[in-house]
Amino acid sequence: MRVSAKADYAVRAAAELAAADEGPIKGERLAEAQDIPLQFLEHILLDMKHAGIVRARRGAKGGYWLAKPADAITIADVVRAVEGPIAHVQSSPPELIEYRGNAEHLQEVWIAVRANLRAVLEHVTLADLVSGELPSEIEQLAASPDAWAPR
Amino acid sequence: MRVSAKADYAVRAAAELAAADEGPIKGERLAEAQDIPLQFLEHILLDMKHAGIVRARRGAKGGYWLAKPADAITIADVVRAVEGPIAHVQSSPPELIEYRGNAEHLQEVWIAVRANLRAVLEHVTLADLVSGELPSEIEQLAASPDAWAPR
DNA sequence: GCGCTTCTGACCAAAGTGGTCAAGAAAGTC
DNA sequence: GACTTTCTTGACCACTTTGGTCAGAAGCGC
Questions:
Q1: Distances in Å between the alpha carbon of A44 and those of A97, B49, B123?
Q2: Total-model pTM
Q3: Which of A4, A86, A130 has its CB closest to that of B102?
């Protein structure tokens, strides 16, 4: 249940792209802005390109830009592009798992987990992220002191 | 963002223990009931023992039982016992990460993700799980057809 | 002491993580 | 057309994690 470096980097790079208004941004500039190893980042950007989140052009004046408006791309889109499906259990989606005996209702629990994960990741867009104005339900979640407590 | 086989197995074994009313249950019986490789399961049970969730006795008439009442153990307890902290980003807790530039508000997003994960995992107990009567908020999450849709 | 069951550590193959390196292919500049 | 710039792709690499298995030690009940 952890967020990989790849996913974290991907979202940060995407945020930089969302904030840039003019033309293509070079990978190098993104890497510097977010302190990400350049070569690793280029692989990540390629994944995002294949997922249709980002577009790119080579050569002088080349670089990367978002394929869609920043308010049409959610964090879930970015995470899925580099990490694959968001809440798999034992590498299969929770709705396909069959539990036996006393664990029968575990499926509903994993479904609820995924639903709550989606409730955050699919509702924050890159535009929200760079503006700092998260949807109010998410802001409420993050506002609770309890949410900041380690455990 | 996936649930490992270990965590899944751990919760299922714990559910069996929660359902058993009498004496210690043998590892073998748990393994059969939930179709888990025995030797692997014993390692998992050991982890749970170290975490104080389970107790054990060796020898004939030995086996495992819950260290606390089933309604005092949450799924989060079990998952943490075998997987460690629940929503780390790049192996550190979200409240300690510092983001720069346009990714500054990403921290709040990860905090919200963790909060929503906790909202499920820390509120479903083993007793809820075996009885099938999940807390109403969680039941509502799992009831939405949307939550069952792949994506 | 004997049988049973947990406990523990060693080991293993395969996959994932977090990168680096080097060659290629397009795009722009002169 | 030559040259530079920048993305594209695949190979490689060290290390850790995952999902196990094996074998032996140690405790418990009789």
A1: 31, 40, 36
A2: 0.96
A3: A130
* Whole-number Å distance between alpha carbons of A56 and A4: 24
Residue B15: list chain A partners with CB under 8 A: 101-103, 106
Structure-token match 């006393």, residue found: A102
In sequence order, what E strands does A53-98 have?
54-57, 63-66
One digit per residue, the tens of pLDDT, for chain A of length 151 reads 999 999 999 999 999 999 998 889 999 999 999 999 999 999 999 999 999 999 999 999 999 999 999 999 999 999 999 999 999 999 999 999 999 999 999 999 999 999 999 999 999 999 999 999 999 999 999 999 999 999 9
Q: Is the CB of B42 under 7 A from strand C?
A: yes
**AA letter at A53:** I
Q: Distance in angstroms, CA of A115 to C1' of C6?
A: 39
Q: Is A39 helix (H, G, I), strand (E, B) or coil?
A: helix
Of residues A100, A104, A111, nearest to B35 (C-beta): A100
